[in-house]
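A note from the maintainers: we've had questions about how concatenated examples are separated. There is no special marker in the raw files; a new sequence line simply starts the next protein. For clarity in this README we add a label.
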Amino acid sequence: MVEEERGVLHGQVFFLHDIGVVAKKALHRAVVDYGGTVSPMPTKQVTHVIATQDEIKGNSFKLQSIVAKNPHVKIVTEQFLMDRVRNAKKVVKKAPAQPQAVQQPQVEPAALAAQQLTQPLTVAVPADTQVAPVPTVTLVLPTSGPNTGDFRVAVFGLNFVQGPGLTIRFGTVASTDNEFHGDTSIICTIPPCKLAPGLVAVQASNDGGKHFGFPVEFNFYDETGGHFTHTVEQKVAVLRGQLQNVRRAIVNIQQTELSLQTQLAQFPSLKPEEEEIEKEQEPEEREEHVVHHDEFEREIRVFISSTLGDMKEEHDKIIKYVIPRLRKLCMSRDVLLSFADLRWGVTGAKNEQPSMLLMCLREASKSNVFIGMLGERYGFSVTTEGDNSHNDLLSRSMENAAREFPWVKDYKDRSVTELEMRTVLSEEASEDKHAHFFTRDPYYTEDVKKEERHLFASEGPIAAQKLSALKAEIAKSGYPVKEYLRPAQIVDLTYNSIENYINDKYPKGSALSESEREELRHKLSARNLTKLYLPNENNFLELDKFVNDNAKEAPLVVVGEPGSGKSALVANWIALHKEHHPEDVVVSHYIGCSPASTNYASLLLRIMRLICTQLAIPELEANNSTISALFPGWLNNVAMSNENHRRMIICIDGMDKIDERDNAMELVWFPNTFHNNVSVVVTTAPVQRIVHALKKRNSHILELALLAEAERKSFVRMYLNQRAKKLSDAQEFKIASAAQTANPRFMQTLLDEIVVVSEQDAIDKRIGECLEAKNTSKLYELLLRRLERDYDPDRKGIVRLFMSFLRCARRGLNLETELIVLLEQNNITAEEWSPMFVVVEDLFESLGGILSFANNDFSDAVTSVFTWEKGVRNTLHEKLATFFSKIEGVTDRKLEELPYQFEQANEWGKLRDLLADPSVFDKLFCPTTKFDLFHWLHLVETNAQCDVVSLFYDKLDKSSFSADIIPADFCYKVGKCLDEMSKIKGAEKVYLKALRLYEATSMPLEAAKVKRDLAQIYHVTRRTDKAEVLLQNLVEVYEKEKGPDDVDVATTLNALGMLYIDSRKTLNAHAALERALQICESQLGAENTITADVAYSLGCLYDFERDLLAANLEKAEEFLKRALKIKEQLYGYYHPDVAWVLNKLGCVYIEQDQFNDAEDCFTMALEIREISLGPKHVSVAQTLENFITLFALQEQYSKAEELGRRALDIVSETFGETSFQVSSILLRVGALMFVMGKKDVGEADLKRAVEIRTKLHGPDHPDTKEAILTLAELIAPPKPAEKPQPVKTTWSKPAPPPPPPMAAGGIPPPPPPPSAKYGGVQVLPPPPGGPGGVPPPPPPPPPPPGYIVAAAATWNKPVITASELRDELERKSELRHITEKSDRSNARDAACAMVGAKKRKMQYKSKAAPRSTLAQFVSANKPAAQFLRK
């Protein structure tokens, strides 16, 4: 008998609530060592619940539930337990001495039990190797401390031995005051010291420091400077210590193994076993990350039982032909069909694990449809007949399965197939299970080849007898039994059997509602993602920290490459969080799991519905068109007012898969901020538009790393364990050490490829073939070739055409109405392609009902294997074009694909005729598709030798319009389209025709709309007088027809204000724009797009007046930021209007010498314009022009020249070689050439600019004189420096800004820079002297007589005069003297003084690096620098 002593915790039962894994083990051992008991559940016998301090303070829902069930239980912390066991005596078990062949170290029994439980690295060694056990450190609390020492820590681990030799070392410092609490825990003191901050290794020794065990990391941080990141050397030191201990442990294990084998050899009656029976993992270990799957009520689970070798053909036919048909039937009834695919089965192979039988019995028991097939073969069983090499494995499999299915013990001599069938035949079988058995004609074996006939015959007399008895028992069971002659007949037999069961249980008309069907698909996605997951505690910790952060307002964004495990991470974390925190409201949405899941409005409505259901509150009355506006406010109110302030967690998986329609990819529908009680987690691939939009909202970013080598090996074992298979160590190492397998998608695809191979040699070969693929795309190519071999042996094109049609479609194809029809037209039936589709269904996704590839890697593989040849692609595009051409009417789906297919097939004539159709044009010219229209029209013009203007203008006279199209409206849309495509002359021509049509039908307001666009064209083409008169008249028309405060009045005033800026009539511009802003704010609000347009115009005005007041540049920046914020909120971050504001904001930053900020703005604007408008749009040229100035000021001349020539090509193609816009760029590029020393090239550019302007305006026009003066200054020899004389200064007018973007998105080109002279007086620097030595400059020359008065009369609003403005400026002493811009150093100092130390908060700002050569550059090239600066 074993005597026991009572410990201090005797009679007390502890439950460990939400304690970490390592700490949980240590506490578990402490309770047991001191006489207590640990309960796995919070039963009524529990006396103490150990929880964290945070859980107790938060009074969590789970703790409340425990107390409610057991009112006498005590809730305590870990410290309570440590205080109880401090200085207490441990329980020691005394047992009679036993003879030992191997001398054990003197370690307490509790420590030995802990060793056996946790499998430490040190083991018992033979008697001749007498060494103390090497202790292992597993945890140090706290995990960091100050580098000055003098603090206490708790050290947990294994094999600590009390005595003078016990040493704990932190790096090079040994601890003091070691307080021994058992072989698993010590409390010690780190003495006062001075250490370098960083990571050190914490190691323990029992022999005074001779042998140290496995270390852990401890972080010393600088107490004065905060925490310090460890160096590489420190990290390497820790890893080397851990590696050394592992090597020592391996040597000890090998020595122990040799000793035990030697002792066993002394007993000849015992046969040493080659393998140990593998024990299942302890429940405590398994439960850490086990996700309990919900069983779906509407689910058909099919299990097929048969012998494998002789029934392979039947098995394959069921998978290829029966399962796809059943899946289609189940989908129509909203029933989930799952098929237990255990194709490896129990084969007796050496690479098989003894848990395969258990898995088969589990699947058979869970199934509700059981199909049994028997021939003449009985199957693998423990037998003395024939080959019995598998007996050992089967015996162990039986013992393993008997633990869960005790009845297996009574059938240990039976085959695996019979045991599977006994899950139906036994008395414990469920009554709801549908079973059907099929027996094959015995004479079928005569048709089998002689060399294969032995595979179909019985294994021997005993096996035949057992098979006969089994068939007799099945016949008496009452289940239907049918006989078939050939394998081909099994298809109809099994399908009809299961179909009848489905019809009985789920008859027609029993389908779910739309909302129920949607929830089913989301639950299915979550279940699939939690089937197999290799947890990463760091990622789980980051999610937990984010949810517990009470100061957050933005979402957490999980970013990772496709296949990196983003979805699985979130799904598994949600499952664990629900289990630990049932009080939280948790909602998950998996984009792409259903057609409706990709629509942003449906997404918001579903999230709202689920939150309301969990909180039992009424839903908000909203629909698809209103939910995005109402959702943020509703969610905020619910978060603040819900009962008990329950936390809400919203997880949106796959944001990159959202439907792009309605500008959804810009996330304008997604709330900018959230209440701190709402935690939002979003996953996305690194799609620039989405990640950029979320980063701009200050989102937390969690980037997923690829799998480490150790994680890869664990993943291999975990994945194969599910199929009860294993690989050799060499095979595992080969897979895990390959760089490609760091990607989880590559890893899983590789394992799927080898999982169907059973022969050892074939596995090695397949692994080698797969690892030859350098990336996932190449691995998918192997998969596609295998699919062709398996499912298209006759090379009919089943796999090729199925994949190729999907690859050549623009958005994918509808499976039922498009892809099936296309395949049938190519003589491929659904019965032929369905088996293949079932196998690879996970590689596809359905977005809005459209089937497409789930990832780009698979799409690239299809291209490489099937559609890499141009001729093949053209043929496929022609077939798709023919198919979509036959769709009647003008549908969205037709217009989504047909123009694209014409483009890819190079059928330019058909594309031209399609776009010229008024109905097609009318549907395509809308905000969501007009940029596609611009792209196709440009291609038609280039490849079909067709003038777009003539194409549409001829249609206006010859076309007969349908009843739903008004000719005048169509004419106006054509003009607007040409205008936005920068076809200025053609747009004016069409606008005039539309104006005549509107005036002929007495539609004055519609005619006014056309006139406003015509005025914009006049403005762009520098017919300012004509534009001014037209806009002033329009103001009067709108005031008369709609009232003085109408929005159209504000829009017209905004256009007029920009015109006044260009005409240098700044006072009138102030009056027009301030009135426009007042109307917009009162009628539309401060966050409207028209309000943003007016704010943009005011920013341009203050930038134009930057030399009048020091604060004007700051005002310009303020208005432009306001406009930018509104545009981004309304349109997202990749809209042309956003680029327009960024472009101007970059110019303002140049004036402030913030070159890095300016470059960021221009880069973003250029990217947006190239994506949305095309690389040859005139707006792209405008941004390139700004880059000329920016790079020239930074002396990056080569970049400036390259971008300047590109801008010149675009403008020449758009406006013509002799246009004013071309001359403006020539002046910039020519001046740049002089700076670069290319005087001949620069002189040619400038002379060409002079010729163009002389031809356009004559020699006496100010613009022509500007070009002549610039040329003369640059080619003239430098004059000797003269002593500056005081001269009279006058006002200098800075360059006018470009007009704002048009209402419908059209963007006119920028006006040219102004002349270096104004009013005939040259701008000169002030005389030298102190600040008070220069008399104030005289007032500017008066404006043209009458225009201020006329404007005031038109607007019915007083206008400040020039003299009044000057008097006000003088009173405030804010008037600055205008100096010549050639001295950049003075201008730079002035800008720096103006900006001061004020921090810019805009996201684009970063401190510009000083450029020491800037002053030398401008002083050496004064004329060129002066012009480039403008």
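[label: protein 2]
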Amino acid sequence: MKIDFLKEPGYSSSFYSYIKVEGIGDHIFEIIDVLGSTHGTLFPACSFNIFLIFWDPIYISQAKYSNWIISFNFASHNITIETKSYYYDKKDIYNNNNIADLSYYPNNAFSNSSIPFQGFGQYGGPLVMVSLNTETGKDLLLLDSGYDFFSFTPIKGSKGDLKYLSFVLNYFNLEIQNFSLVTLKETISNNNNNSSSSSSSSSSSSSSSSSSSSSSSSSNSSSSSSGSGSKISNMNNLLIFNFFIEFNVPIFENIGINIDLIGSNYPIQPIIEVDFNVVNPNLNIFPDARYSLGIGRKILLDFPFGYLLGSNKSFRSTVVLFWINSTLNNVISLESTIFNTLYAIRNISNITNNASVEPPKLISYKINRISSETVLYTFKINSINGLDKISFSGISHFSIDCLIEGDIYSGTYEITVHPIYHQVIELIDKHNNIVLLEKDQFISIDPLVQFSNTQDLTFNFDLNSFNNITFLKNDLNLINSSVSNIMYLNSSDIAIDLPMYLGLVDPVSLYTNTIYPFNYNSTLGLFYCKFIVPKNNIFGEIDFAIITLSNRNYDISTFYYIGGSFFSSKLIVNQTYLDNQGPIFEKIEKIGMNEIFSNDSVLGVKSRLIGWNLFISDDYNGFESGYIKVIGSHDNSIYNFNFTSEDFSSGDKWSGSYEMLINVSYPCIPQSFIITNVLLKDTNDRTSEFNLYSELETSSIKSPFFNLYDQQMVDILYLNYTSSPIPTYSSPQVLDSFSSSRTTIDVLGVDRIVDFTFQISLAPGGIKEDQLPIVYMVTSKMEKLKCVSKLIFINSTIANYSCSSEIPLGFGYPDPILLSLYGFIGNGGVFNGFSTSDLMNHNSYYINTTISFGNPIIKSNELFFSDSDRLVLIGREFESTSSVFIDYNDTNGFSKYAHTIQTIESSIIILSNVKATEKSFFIKVQNLNGKFSNIYKVIPIYFNIIPSTTVEPTETPSTTIDPTETPSTTIDPTETPSTTINPTETPSINPPQLCIGSPLCGGSNQGYCEEKVGCICYPPYNGKSCQSKVIIIDPPILNPSNPSTNLTFNDDKGSNSNNNKSLIGLISIISLRELGLNNEIKKTHFFEKWIQITLSNNKHQYITNIKGTSTNITIETEWFDSLTNITFANQQLTMNPSTLKYNINITKYEFISKINSLQLVIQSKLSKTSNVDDSTCSSQSFGETTSNENSNYIQLSVNEYSLFGRFIKRGIVDNKTISINNEQLNDLNSENSYYTSESYIGINIPWFKDLVQLDPDFSVLLDQSSANSICKDQGHNLSKNALIGIIIGCIGGAVVIVVISFFVFRYRTNMKIVKIKLLKLNKY
């Protein structure tokens, strides 16, 4: 085996290298185990023998100019290789990059004081700005806390003066965090307490001098305030200390949810009404909550949806939802969107489950590669429960909107997807039964048909195939103007139908999520790709990557990423000024602060406008548009402000003021108006964003407020006013009428508009006329659509409203759509609404759905550049298209397209002679029956290239896979047995066991010997020699606090009293630990508060979560009274009487690293509590069972009785059956004496994405005495007679984890290829 670096390391938002391995043939490797300290991560990259190393930034900070070294295990070989540092021959360049300025926001955030930083919103951490004299723009800048690192993002400047910005968050809730600034110079530290973390950022050559450097740096630095940031000049490195953030997220307190099943008189399938009450005396603005019903069905409770009656001080929430008959949907939970904080959970009973467990079945298929942007799939699918959706890579989901024939039980679907998203395909029915379509999977045995994909082509190329690259334009000028460009690739090794894409990974393009497809021009014999370099970008080299697909398998990780540093051709920018920052607030003035409203002119004013005057700057790109949301603290009134650069009251788009005003008049309730959300965008699509609460982690680098961090958040965001006297109106509005224009809607029709009208009688005090109620439409999938009303008429007694909405394609089918109405707000501060059950009195509370065919509908189009004449339309039912009409938005209206119309199946139209235009235009089609489609708007991408230099694709050979065109490959489900092949990895099997015992295997009545397996036992006998016998004991008493279980029973010497049991067996779930590559413990999570739900007499459920994460743990305990067979991971297991089974579900866990694993720690203990005498002995053993059981076991014995645990050595990890390792843990203190035997078992769980399922169980075995017995009198060992044990089956002591969704991005932490976010350092 030979391993070579192909080139020196590259850099494009992260450091990477390519290595070539010779001597491995065509063997396929996934992620490679990196040994020792984490210097980087190794991935397959291109062809079978090219691998990609992503270097760890912290390691780079310690080895800036020395060789970079990495060790890994490859094909059972431990290999260490090294290469020159990226900065090796650039030391003279980077060592001269001095820090010209350093600023803090706020200016005292990192001062040596105990005052905490008040977080500016949930993720509004402090900021550090560094101004650097750099000529390259590829500097190494990090803030290292010892726990985590925070990278710097280049935001402003030009060559020789570039500003970088970084932020910090308190991930670990530490009262004090220390940070050292890591640069390409040596890091300086000082002698403050807890300052040792800085040394971890220093290279070995600098650590000895760090102490002496710190004192001089402190004395030489000067602190001054300029603008909004505290600046420290002439300082290359700095230790930052005494920092912590204080920001509390309010949660609902002491709530419980109530559920009412709406009865049999309901004309559609069962629905449930769910409600809860909240008391909130502090007038907190809560983050949104959401309901989860079963697996994958969630609905957001964002005001006003569900808010039935009250004010923010005290309110009731009520919604009506569908109940789905499925064993997977018997629990409803309420949680906050922030950290998934669980508020309440309830079991839904009294529903008969009539769902089938048989998953959908693929009957036939056809695949057609349309272009480098589109693949067309045609599936014929049968589903007993009805098909719910077809999922591609867990990202793109398709449903009834793609049905072209039949129905959800037996239908034909046409689906268009981007080639990047079709790696993992799942068919999912309405009850969440899933079948995964994998490469080479058999969908029929007779005739023999395998599932293949367009990626089964053999692409014979390597990295050298991409060496011949040129650009139409180079040495770019990006000052205030984006550049349209073309990349040319000349290679005879690359198949002309290979899907390839270009992604720009410069600081500005990195977050646009745009990739550009390659096409092939047969006339020129070249691949070419049109792309656009955004204006005001970074100087120097523009980083890019070529992404293509592998023929390895269908995992998203097998995209080939070829970084731009590998190529000899570079894309260079000579003239530019970087503006990578969104618009920001320079100043905010309040208008009408603390105003008093009253009918009495002496006490106050009757009415006036109050609000904010916003001074917005964007010094280079210029401000373009903004959105701001304001919420009332008492009545939850919502004001949405959308504005553009043309709305300024003074100034211009580079620096202007904008007024945001709210009309307030008496009567009104005293409250504060609070800015909760801000989104500002400049002319280059750079955005700044603020969210008071955010479900997803955001960066304060993007905060529009950071220039105002020296002020308190409440001083900026809160606008207070009061009233005198305070109105006391508390009555809600009364609904007089409510009607819908449709009782049934065709959700595949062209006309899917529905209108609603309603009238209310006004409550005393009147209503806030600027608060418009919303009609909500909810489906059985818990999808939600809203229709915002308009006020049509109002007087002193009534108000009339109406609204109109277009129903999305396929919405709700085949079930009805539930209606509700929320969002009335009275002047006395009371809001109210009307749930579906309230609307029943008006006979218009749902809309039936139906479908029909023959309706052409345009859904989308492929990328259309302004200089192009080829337009690809994507939609449905195009096969009988006769005419196309285009309105070029030139006052001439629609005109008939006069050229050839090419249709492919039902879903594609290709027009090859469309007018090139920069303006948006409109298009519609007509079929042979005279039916018109919807009118669709096409928005061209402006592309400014002289026409003579533009190349258009010649027709690319179509790649079509159609194994089902001939009768021999058409499958009739009535003739062919149903075959479901699950994705599995062959689990390891225990080695053969010898048959033992006297008589052998307990004799003919207790078991028999099977060669190469061991003893096979007849129930109730068990164990290696079949001499253990199950005894019947009383069921355990319910533990209301946690899923720990005590099994109590008497030995032969004990009393028969139930109150005086002589032996106690304990099973407990202790913790979840994250382990590193060498099994070192990275984190330990203990389970604190559990919610207990009784499902039946013998079945109970416990639910908790890992605090501060989205990981939930759900445990079901089930007591078996009789012999029962179950199946797990295609293996049948026997649950004997008196068996306690644990099912443990652990949802998605955020690993620190992809190479880490989890370990579930389970405690088992057997103690003798009475009749302890000199003959008492205990023992324990751990080993392997027979190969047919393929398990580990733990046996804890006290005298004649033993507690036996069986841990099956296979698990289901993200829907794949794989081998699982169980081990006896020696690092935890066990209590072992002559009367107690205790052990901890670790079930090792590999890295996973969504869910894992494991399956251990406990039982009693009869065995011989152990050599390691512990006895009070060492003259007495355990009896050599057979030991009697107890069966305590715990399928799980188990970790049972059932997959919800499969593969999104396997290596998403390190390689987000689809979005071109390759292990980005920026947390932007």
